[in-house]
Amino acid sequence: MRSAAALPFCLALGGCSTVQSALSPAGEQAAQIAVLTWILLGVLGGVLLIVLGALWLAIRGSDNARRLLSADWAVSIGGIAFPAVVLTALLAGGLWLMRPATTDAALTIEVEGRQWWWRVGYVLDDGTRIEAANEIRIPVGQEVDFVLTSSDVIHSFWVPSLGGKLDMIPGRTNRLRLKAERPGIYRGQCAEYCGGPHALMAFEVVALPEADFAAWRQAAGQPVSTVRESGFDVFAAAGCGSCHAIAGTSANGRVGPDLSRVGERRMMAAATMPTSEENIARFIADGQRHKPGNLMPEFDVLTDEQTKTIASYLARLK
Ligand code: HEC
Ligand SMILES: [Cu+2]
Fold first, then answer.
1. Is 171 inside any structural domain?
2. DSSP states of 119-180
3. I want to staple 243 with a disulfide (CB 3.0 to 4.6 A). Which of 7, 190, 256, 279 is the partner?
4. What is the domain range of residue 188?
């Protein structure tokens, strides 16, 4: 009996790992939410105790206590003034804690929710863009403005360790400011059911020390050097370029993730498996088994040799 009662607590504690937890904030915005959570829990816990105490008095208390409890002034204070003051204070405190930013952040990153992955576009100071997918790199200690859109249905962008969640609504542009206080990998996921493999629609935010981020940004602004290597012709002949783009080549499809630097991303297929030559080959030949319902057709018509050649080419794009 006792162990059965403990079960819900154990399940709840299972959510307290640090990669994806609103209770282990790694940034300013997430810290505000965590503070608000603890304040609400504390104040409302106190109110619950007071109410339970009054209830106990009303049932078990002496006649005197019960008469006191039902006096007009007790009802006015306890039933009207007290809730009005407490709720107003909580609302005001919450609004103040979560006040929106008034200045523009130094870095803007566009994220578009798609069934069932994330298009990522970095807008650089000189106006150029870096295209990516499913992995968002940000500099530690700097505020970043996320510009959130959707190309199909409603998705929701949520990185619990960094901040609140915000819906991505077709036809609308929403903005969310986040800042990571320490380097690390923070997991995010779609928080609005969007059909099919919605549960397999995650992503990672990689927070890099400022110098590392600057170096990556510099490198990522240029087409990768391996694009002329063998493998691209097989990729092109298979028709992959109609859905995928690789910077500096004739592949310029926009239906699927940009593959310009797919080999450098930690995870693929919306953070459902680590990026590797083997996993890329597996996804090409058997992607529907790995992620049922995803919008990339299986290419089981390719020979093993062709699949391997393409996978090895893509894995080297970094
Ligand atoms: C009809 C459009 C289409 C074609 C053709 C297509 N893909 Fe895709 N591809 C997609 C979509 C959509 C996804 C995203 C799947 C997901 O994660 O839900 C994807 C995902 C991928 C990924 C994972 C990328 C990442 O960063 O997560 C790789 C690798 C890939 N495709 C390689 C290929 C190769 C190689 C070919 C040719 C043999 C190909 N694709 C042909 C639509 C396509
Ligand atoms: Cu979703």
1. yes
2. EEEEE-TTS-EEEEESEEEEETTS-EEEEEEESSS-EEEE-TTT---EEE-TT--EEEEE--
3. 256
4. 107-220
